[in-house]
Design brief:
Number of domains: 1
Radius of gyration: 17 Å
CATH class: Alpha Beta
CATH topology: Rossmann fold
Number of strands: 5
Shape: globular
CATH superfamily: HUPs
Strand order of the largest sheet: 3-2-1-4-5
Strand content: 5-15%
CATH architecture: 3-Layer(aba) Sandwich
Structural class: alpha/beta
Distance between the termini: 30 Å
Oligomer: single chain
Largest sheet: 5 strands, parallel
Number of helices: 8
Helix content: 25-40%
Order of helices and strands: EHEHEHHEHHEHH
């Protein structure tokens, strides 16, 4: 089977993306990040998901983005709560972590080159995506072009890297339906930006609300009973 590096946060989107890559016949190497995020409990979900979906390997990279802050996920800034979906789409929210996907994809690129893998999967979404600039298709296309200029494998023509974004044009409801179709156990996932001390979702942050919206519009029950995604 061809090898692929799959970015895995443990959330609904990245889990569905990993399950889809497995269904398409890839030998998946899951990559997660402990970057000082307030919702670090997502790493426990990522470990559960990687095991359940048969990842060949699951690695967690430790980098402390709290050194820079600038986000409600990596600094002492309150996570927005109870926002309307329309409000979420206005501007770039404070939960945006500066350069996060660029950093994550760079690590994925490095591992892919070592594995001699030509494929990277990332569960970015450009529809219900909360306004993050590094989730847009034009950003992914630009990174892919850069990646093929930046590696020995690319320059020597041994491997051309492709970044797969199968969820990019789907609504959250579409992602939920796709996840169900590829056998995702949504009960293993975690999405909340501001869980309590026991890791339970707050039910009010943007991620929780988008997840709830997705399940409701898909006509399915969230096994986390309305919690984050």
């Amino acid at each position: 089977m061809p090898k692929a590096v799959c970015l895995l946060s443990g959330g609904l989107d990245s889990t569905t993306c990993l399950a889809l890559a497995r269904r398409e016949g890839f030998d998946c190497y899951a990559l997660s990040f402990d970057y000082g995020q307030r919702h670090r409990v997502e790493l426990e979900a990522a470990a559960r998901v990687a095991l359940a979906l048969g990842a060949a390997e699951h690695r967690v990279v430790c980098i402390d983005l709290r050194l820079f802050g600038g986000s409600a996920l990596t600094a002492g800034i309150e996570v927005p709560k109870h926002r309307e979906v329309e409000e979420m789409g206005q501007g770039i929210p404070i939960t945006y972590v500066p350069a996060r996907n660029t950093i994550f994809l760079s690590f994925a690129l490095a591992w892919a080159e070592v594995l001699e893998a030509g494929d990277v999967f990332i569960g970015v979404n450009a529809i219900d995506y909360s306004g993050y600039p590094d989730c847009r298709p034009e950003y992914i296309a630009a990174f892919e072009r850069m990646a093929n200029l930046a590696t020995r494998a690319g320059v020597e023509g041994r491997t051309r890297l492709r970044i797969h974004t199968p969820l990019a044009r789907l609504s959250k409801a579409g992602i939920v339906k796709l996840g169900q179709s590829v056998g995702v156990d949504f009960g293993l996932t975690h999405s909340c930006y501001d869980p309590d001390a026991q890791g339970r979702p707050c039910g009010a942050c943007d991620s929780c609300l988008l997840r709830r919206k997705g399940f409701e519009e898909a006509g399915l029950r969230d096994p986390l009973q309305g919690g984050g995604g």
